[in-house]
Design goal:
Low-confidence stretches of chain B: none
Radius of gyration of chain A: 21 Å
Shape of chain B: elongated
Shape of chain A: elongated
Mean pLDDT of chain A: 87
Oligomer: heterodimer
Distance between the termini of chain B: 27 Å
Helix content of chain B: over 70%
Largest sheet of chain B: none
Structural class of chain B: mainly alpha
Largest sheet of chain A: none
Order of helices and strands of chain A: HHHHHHHHHH
Number of strands of chain B: 0
Number of domains of chain A: 1
Radius of gyration of chain B: 17 Å
Largest interface: A-B, 33 and 33 residues
Strand content of chain B: under 5%
Strand content of chain A: under 5%
Order of helices and strands of chain B: HHHHHH
């Protein structure tokens, strides 16, 4: 089954059609998605700023990373659920949207990022706290994370601006025929 | 004020990349401002970072929160300037600005006092944190619904 046919199948689901039909579900899901950006995106931002040594220096890296970790995971689950609901209800539109695919690529890169820096940074916070100066690798992880997440937010907002190419049949109206 | 708004409105119309750019900075800025405030709130609720850290968190993040708020208001004004009449007539926008004003005043008065007070973890403290979160979440929802009312 190709991706295109899966998307088509998804569009035909009762629950997907109900979503698209109920006027306030989409904005409510989107507003929840945005609230998650504010709160959990905020936590990600703060974790990165802590790794750069720019905020919360009174709290150990272990505390900031460790104590916020379950919240960030919970927030991620909620985010992804909202995202899946949004994409699922408009699957046809999202499939051809380059901003959507850019965002998905950046998210994939963030998964790679978390794996690359897992041992040296995110699961190594005790070591980071012991170090006199924050190791360059931790700062690199933080800087890359910031760039990627800002990219995700930007691409995400731009999803709504993409209008897609007009099919040739719609752009050419035979003389005397009424527009579709 | 309205003459300036007209010039700015023209600038927003002439440069059509300005609106999405302002929006993206607006969103990143509220992750910064609301995120730092929410961190204090969660600490006051004794979740996330500990309750005893609340005062330190509040002091440490206050400049970042302020930066975020300044950027929010600046980019928000740009967005507003692109079509002032439409926004003023939009009920969700009016709701959002009301909540925003309340949230900002609240943040720099009651919220600040409780956050910096070091002690107190009773229902009163938790209520203060809860109201703060509720106000800011209302601002976000109000903002999104501008396009849907």
């Amino acid at each position: 089954m190709s991706l295109a046919s899966f998307v088509h199948w998804l569009e035909q689901r009762d629950w997907a059609m109900d979503f698209a039909g109920s006027a306030y579900f989409y904005p409510i899901v989107l507003a929840t998605h945005l609230t998650c950006i504010a709160i959990f995106g905020g936590m990600i931002l703060i974790t990165n700023l802590r790794l750069l040594g720019w905020v919360l220096r009174s709290e150990s890296v272990s505390d900031v990373v460790g104590r916020l970790r379950p919240w960030k995971w919970g927030g991620l689950v909620l985010m992804v659920t909202c995202g899946a609901l949004l994409a699922g209800s408009e699957a046809g539109k999202y499939y051809g949207n380059p901003y959507f695919w850019t965002k998905m690529t950046l998210l994939a890169l963030l998964i790679v990022h978390s794996l690359v820096f897992r041992r040296s940074v995110y699961r190594n916070t005790a070591e980071l706290d012991r170090a006199e100066v924050m190791p360059g690798r931790a700062k690199l992880a933080a800087a890359l994370s910031l760039i990627l997440w800002i990219g995700v937010v930007t691409a995400g907002r731009m999803i709504g601006y993409y209008e897609g190419p007009v099919p040739l049949a719609d752009s050419v109206t035979p003389a005397g025929a009424s527009p579709r | 004020m309205f003459i300036q708004a007209n010039a700015l409105t023209q600038a927003m119309i002439d440069n059509d990349w300005l609106f999405p750019a302002a929006e993206c900075v607006h969103i990143a800025s509220f992750a910064l401002a609301i995120g730092t405030i929410a961190l204090v709130d969660l600490s006051l609720l004794d979740v996330g970072l500990r309750r005893k850290a609340a005062a330190q968190i509040a002091r440490s993040t206050s400049l970042w929160t302020l930066t975020g708020l300044v950027l929010i208001i600046f980019t928000g004004f740009l967005l507003f300037a692109s079509d002032p009449d439409m926004y003023l007539r939009n009920s969700s926008f009016r709701f959002k600005i009301t909540c925003l004003v309340l949230a900002i005043i609240y943040n720099y008065t009651i919220h600040r006092k409780v956050a910096l007070s070091e002690n107190g973890s009773g229902i009163g403290t938790k209520l203060v944190a809860g109201v703060s979160l509720a106000l800011w979440i209302s601002v976000v929802f109000g903002g999104l619904f501008i396009a849907f009312v």
